[in-house]
Amino acid sequence: TIWRTFHMNSRKHIHFLPCLVAASLLHLPSASIAQEPARPRRAQGQVHEIVERVSTLLVERYVFADVGDQMAAALRNAERRGAFAALATPEAFADSVTRLLRSISHDGHLWIEVSPGEYPEPAARPDTQGDAARRSQLRATNFGFPRVEILRGNVGYIQVSQFVTPEIASDAAAAAFGFLANADALILDLRGSGGGSAEMVALISCYLFGSAPVHLFNIYRRPQRRLDEYRTDRFTPSVRFPRQPVYVLTNAALFSAGEGLAYTLKDLHRVTVVGEKTSGGAPLGSFHRLSEHLVMFLAEARAISAASGTNWQGVGVTPDVPVPAELALATAHLLALETLLRLDTADVMVGERQQAAQEIRQRLGSAPARP
C-alpha cells in the first residue's frame, strides 16, 4: 500500500503540473518552482509503521537480545534522520533496511524482501512443504537425497541437497541409507546444501551412531524462552553405521542446516570433514509480514552443540582436510580407501581398493594430508 499510494499521488502531481506551474508563476518566488513536492503523509506514516513493526520484532524475538536492541535503535535513528525518505520502491527500502541490520548483526538469516501476499504470520502459516505443489518439487530431488551410490572399494556415497522435514522425507532417508547398509565406509556430500529442518539433521545423525543415546545439539528458541534437546534416540532408524568411517564434504556455500550437520558430527568426533570452510550461518528463523508488499525473515533461535556448547555462527565449519570443493569427493574417497586398507589388510577387497586408491592419487597428483 505504501508504495502504490506514493506512485499514484506522484502521477496526479504530474497530470496537473501545467496548472500548478502557472499558479506558481503568479504567486510564488522563482525558487519555489524548483522545490520537490513533499512526500505524501500517508506514505511517511506507513514507513514509520513498518520501521516500528521491524523494531518491535527485533526487540522481542531476535535470537540475540542485545543485538536485537542495537538494531532496533539504529533503525529508529535512521528513520529520524530521514534515511528512507528518498526511497521510491519497495525493493530499495527492503535493501536499505537489510543492509543496515546486517551491518550490525552480520547475520545471513535476517532480511526484508518484496513478497506480496505469500507469507501470513508464522502462527497461521501452513507447512508449505506439505502442500501438493511443494511435494511435487521435492520429489524431483528425491526429497533431498538426489544421488546415492556405492563407489569403488565398497564406499557408500549420499548427496544431501536439502534438509526436508522428516514428516515428508524420512522414507527417502531410510531408502538412501538402506541402499548402503553393507557399505564399509560412508561419504556424506553436503556441498551446496543450505537451510532446512533441524529434525532432519538429527535424523541423519541417528544413522551414524549405535543404539545408545547420544546428545547431538540443543536449540534455544527465544520467543518461547525454550531449550529443545536433540538426541539420537529421537528417531529409530532401520539401519545404523556406528563403526564405519564417515567423511563429510563441505564447500564455502554450505549454510545453515547443512553446516549444523557437519559441525555437530565433527564436534562429536564422528566424522572427518573434507573440503572448504563453510559460510557460518547458525540461527534459525521464520517469516513475518510487515505490509502488503514486504516480509521479513528473522532469526529467532540458535543451535548449540551438545559437545562444546558452541555453534558455527560467523566462524563456519573448518575442515579436517582442507581441499578445494571440486577435489573433496576424490579426496574423501581416497581417505576412505586408505583407512579401510589399514583396518583390514586381509579383506577380499584389498586388491580392488589398492588399485582404486592408486588411480585416485594419480588424478589428484599427490595423496592428501591425513587428519
Present the secondary structure layout.
Elements: H1 2-15, H2 17-27, H3 30-33, H4 41-61, H5 65-80, H6 90-105, E1 111-114, H7 132-139, E2 147-151, E3 155-159, H8 166-179, E4 185-189, H9 198-206, E5 215-221, E6 226-231, E7 246-250, H10 257-267, E8 272-275, E9 284-289, E10 294-305, E11 321-322, H11 328-343, H12 350-364
Parallel strand pairs: 3-4, 4-7, 7-8, 8-11
Antiparallel strand pairs: 1-10, 2-3, 5-6, 5-10, 9-10
Helix pairs in contact: 1-4, 4-5, 5-6, 8-9, 9-10, 11-12
Can you walk me through this structure?
This protein has two domains: 2-106, no CATH class; 128-321, 2-enoyl-CoA Hydratase, Chain A, domain 1 (Alpha-Beta Complex). The protein is 42% helix and 16% strand. The protein has helices at 2-15, 17-27, 30-33, 41-61, 65-80, 90-105, 132-139, 166-179, 198-206, 257-267, 328-343, 350-364, and strands at 111-114, 147-151, 155-159, 185-189, 215-221, 226-231, 246-250, 272-275, 284-289, 294-305, 321-322. The strands form two sheets. Strands 2-3-4-7-8-11 form a six-stranded mixed sheet, sandwiched between helices. Helix 5 crosses helix 6. The radius of gyration is 27 Å and the shape is elongated.
What's the order of the H and E elements? HHHHHHEHEEHEHEEEHEEEEHH
Total helix count? 12
- The overall number of domains is 2
Query: What composes the largest sheet?
Result: 6 strands, mixed
Computed Rg: 27 Å
Helix-and-strand structural type: alpha/beta
Shape label? elongated
> What is the name of the CATH architecture of the largest domain?
Alpha-Beta Complex
CATH class of the largest domain: Alpha Beta
Average the pLDDT over all residues and give the rounded result: 85
CATH topology of the largest domain: 2-enoyl-CoA Hydratase, Chain A, domain 1
- Poorly predicted ranges (pLDDT <50, ≥5 residues)? 1-42, 119-127
Q: What fraction, in percent, of the residue positions are helical? A: 40-55%
Strand order of the largest sheet: 2-3-4-7-8-11
